[in-house]
């Protein structure tokens, strides 16, 4: 009976990802790695100040890959976008923090 109770408790536990989890990406591997690094650095630096994190990521990507980047950082959002090919990334970091980066 105890084994059944333990199994049920395990099913109810939520999985918290402490590593970056890339959900959707059509970037090249080099661009993807650099973008993930910029996003992680900004999110760790600013914590819950999502506006500052998004602004920092946008400035870095604008400098590196040209202007017109858009960044959304938050915990509960839906998004439908039009983007240039090979410039979209949607990822999660630190559990439930979603980040979407794309270029118009």
Cα-atom radius of gyration: 17 Å
Main sheet record? 4 strands, antiparallel
Tally of helical runs: 3
Helix content: 40-55%
Unreliable stretches covering 5 or more consecutive residues: none
Strand order of the largest sheet: 1-3-4-2
Query: Distance between the terminal alpha carbons, to the nearest Å?
Result: 57 Å
Order of helices and strands: HEHHEEE
Overall pLDDT metric: 87
Strand content: 15-25%
| Class based on secondary structure composition and strand pairing | alpha+beta
**Which term fits the overall shape?**
globular
> Could you give the count of β-strands?
4
Commentary on this structure:
By secondary structure, this protein is an alpha+beta fold. Helices cover 43% and strands 22% of the residues. A hairpin with a 3-residue loop joins β3 (89-93) and β4. α2 (29-46) packs antiparallel against α3 (50-65).
List the helices and strands and how they pair.
Layout: H1 2-12, E1 21-25, H2 29-46, H3 50-65, E2 69-74, E3 89-93, E4 97-103
Antiparallel strand pairs: 1-3, 2-4, 3-4
Helix pairs in contact: 2-3
């Amino acid at each position: 009976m105890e084994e059944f109770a333990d199994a049920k408790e395990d099913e109810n536990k939520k999985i918290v990802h402490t590593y970056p989890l890339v959900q959707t990406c059509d970037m090249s591997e080099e661009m993807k790695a650099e973008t993930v690094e910029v996003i992680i650095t900004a999110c760790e630096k600013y914590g819950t100040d999502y506006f500052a994190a998004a602004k920092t990521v946008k400035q870095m990507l604008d400098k590196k890959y040209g202007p017109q980047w858009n960044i959304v950082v938050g915990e509960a959002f839906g998004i439908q976008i039009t983007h240039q090919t090979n410039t979209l990334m949607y990822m999660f970091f630190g559990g439930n923090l979603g980040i979407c980066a794309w270029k118009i």
